[in-house]
Specification:
By secondary structure, the protein is α/β, with parallel strands linked by helices. The protein contains nine helices and nine strands. It has a single domain, classed as Rossmann fold, CATH 3.40.50. It has a nine-stranded mixed β-sheet with strand order 3-2-1-5-4-6-7-8-9, sandwiched between helices.
Length: 320
C-alpha cells in the first residue's frame, strides 16, 4: 500500500532528481527510506491520480457536521529554498510521521518538490526557479480543482457520494512564493471564480513573500493575494522575528516589503477576513538554532499545525 507520494518538476537522473527544471513526474513508495531514490517507483499522472483517489476513498465518511474536524485530509507540502530533493523528502517524512501517521493521523500528505538549487549561496537563482515552477504546480492545482467541482456535482445528486477528504496545503519559506504564483495561474485559468474553495486550510510556514501580499482586503483587485484568499477557506501565516534566514532574504532583495514569515501581516492594511497570522516565537527555546526550519522539529509547532489543518477555530487554537 502506498505510504508516500511525490510530484516533481525537477529533471530525472539515474540516482535522483536534479536541480534543473523538467516536466512533471510522479512517484510512489511504501518504504520509509524516502531519501533513497531507489525506494521510489515512477508512476504516470493519470495512474497517480487514480491511486490517490482510491486511497482517499478508504477514509471514513464523516456525516455529522459536528465532527467536521475529524474529516481526513489530502495535503500538499511545498518545500522551501536551499533544499535538494532528498533533503525535501526527509523533511516530508518528518511531516508525515508527525501529522499523517496511519489510522491516527490527518490522512495523506503529498510532496511537491521543485528545483531548488540546494545551496545557501543560491538564494536569488532559487527565487527564479521558484517563479519558473509555478506553472507546474498550477497544473496540479487545476487538476485538483476540476476534480473537486466534479465531485460536488456528483454529491449534489447523491449525498452518499460526498467527498471523504478535505484538501489542504503546507508551504514553507520560498515554497510560499511558488504557491503564490501558482494560485494566480490556477485562478486565472478558471476565470477567477470568487469564493470557490480549492484548498480548505493553507498553512504558510516562515513564508518568504511580501507581508502585504493580502493588502487588497475584501476588495477584489485580481492580485496574487486575491487568488490565494479566494481559492482558500482559511489562510494561516506562521512567523517569528527570530527567523534570521528571512532576515538574509530581505537583505538580498533590497526592495519590496518585509517578509511575511518574519514580521507577520502588514498591520497598516486590513487583510481578508479568512487570512490571519500567528507569532510562533514563544514555541522555540531561547538557544534554538535555525528557527526557519525548527517549525518542523519542535513538537509544539507540529501540534499547532495539526490544530490548524483540522480546522479548529482560530479563537480556540492554543496560542504558543
Amino acid at each position: 500500500m502506498t505510504k508516500y507520494w511525490m510530484i516533481s518538476n525537477r529533471t530525472v537522473k539515474r540516482d535522483g532528481l536534479g536541480t534543473s527544471h523538467g516536466p512533471l513526474s510522479y512517484w510512489l513508495t511504501d518504504k520509509n527510506a524516502v531519501g533513497d531514490f531507489g525506494s521510489w517507483e515512477r508512476s504516470t499522472g493519470p495512474q497517480f491520480k487514480k491511486e490517490l483517489i482510491r486511497a482517499a476513498d478508504q477514509f471514513p465518511q464523516v456525516d455529522d457536521p459536528a465532527a467536521n474536524e475529524d474529516q481526513k485530509h489530502v495535503t500538499l507540502f511545498v518545500h522551501g529554498y536551499n533544499n535538494s530533493w532528498d533533503d525535501a523528502a526527509r523533511r516530508y517524512l518528518k511531516i508525515c510521521q508527525g501529522m499523517f501517521a496511519p489510522t491516527t493521523g490527518l490522512g495523506i500528505c503529498v510532496l511537491f518538490t521543485w528545483p531548488s538549487d540546494g545551496l545557501a549561496t543560491d538564494y536569488l537563482p532559487d527565487r527564479a526557479d521558484a517563479e519558473k515552477s509555478a506553472p507546474e504546480l498550477a497544473d496540479v492545482l487545476s487538476v485538483l480543482y476540476d476534480w473537486l467541482l466534479g465531485q460536488q456535482a456528483v454529491a449534489a445528486k447523491d449525498s452518499s457520494n460526498a467527498c471523504k477528504a478535505k484538501t489542504s496545503m503546507i508551504a514553507h519559506s520560498m515554497g510560499s512564493y511558488v504557491l503564490q504564483k501558482a494560485m494566480q495561474f490556477a485562478w486565472t485559468r478558471k476565470s477567477q471564480p470568487l469564493l470557490v474553495s480549492l484548498i480548505n486550510q493553507l498553512v504558510m510556514v516562515a513564508a518568504d513573500v511580501d507581508n502585504d501580499l493580502f493588502r487588497g482586503g475584501e476588495t477584489v483587485s485580481k492580485s496574487d493575494g486575491d487568488a490565494i484568499a479566494n481559492l482558500t477557506y482559511r489562510v494561516t501565516a506562521l512567523y517569528s522575528g527570530r527567523d534570521s534566514t528571512l532576515g538574509l532574504s530581505a537583505g538580498l532583495k533590497h526592495f519590496g516589503k518585509r517578509r511575511l514569515g518574519r514580521s507577520g501581516l502588514d498591520r497598516t492594511v486590513t487583510p481578508p477576513d479568512n487570512v490571519w497570522d500567528l507569532d510562533c516565537t514563544p514555541l522555540f527555546k531561547p538557544d534554538q538554532k535555525n528557527i526557519h526550519s525548527a517549525y518542523f522539529e519542535e513538537p509544539r509547532s507540529i501540534e499547532l499545525m495539526r490544530q490548524i489543518l483540522r480546522g479548529t477555530d482560530r479563537g480556540l487554537i492554543r496560542q504558543p
